[in-house]
Design goal:
Length: 111
């Protein structure tokens, strides 16, 4: 599992983390985003917070993303079948429709 913290682009405030999740038995990889308490507060009191949580496969440049409104909980993206090449998870965070943060995990070869 690879993990990367994500912060607001204009500030150095950590708002969550993106993880690359992997099931060897199912040959599947997906992204998981978990927000921090500060993001919970912003979503409840200041902004509409939307996420895209995704996974990418470098071998064929395939990227899948699942869009959802942030719900102060963990959020999972779509699943890609693993195989040759490296994989990564990514997330984009939007406040009131404007992207304020984007982050990818390191690339990891799975299988």
């Amino acid at each position: 599992m690879q993990v990367a913290r994500i912060s607001l682009a204009a500030k150095r405030q950590i708002i969550g983390r993106i993880e690359l999740r992997y099931s060897p038995g199912s040959h599947a990889a997906w992204g998981r985003f978990e927000g921090e308490r500060g993001l919970d507060w912003l979503a409840a009191h200041r902004h509409r917070v939307d996420l895209t949580v995704g996974v990418g496969r470098e071998a064929d440049d395939r990227r899948l993303g699942f869009e959802t409104e942030y719900g102060a909980d963990s959020h999972w993206g779509d699943i890609l079948i693993t195989g040759d090449g490296a994989f990564f998870a990514w997330t984009a965070v939007r406040f009131d429709g404007d992207e304020v943060a984007y982050r990818e995990t390191e690339r990891v070869v799975l299988d």
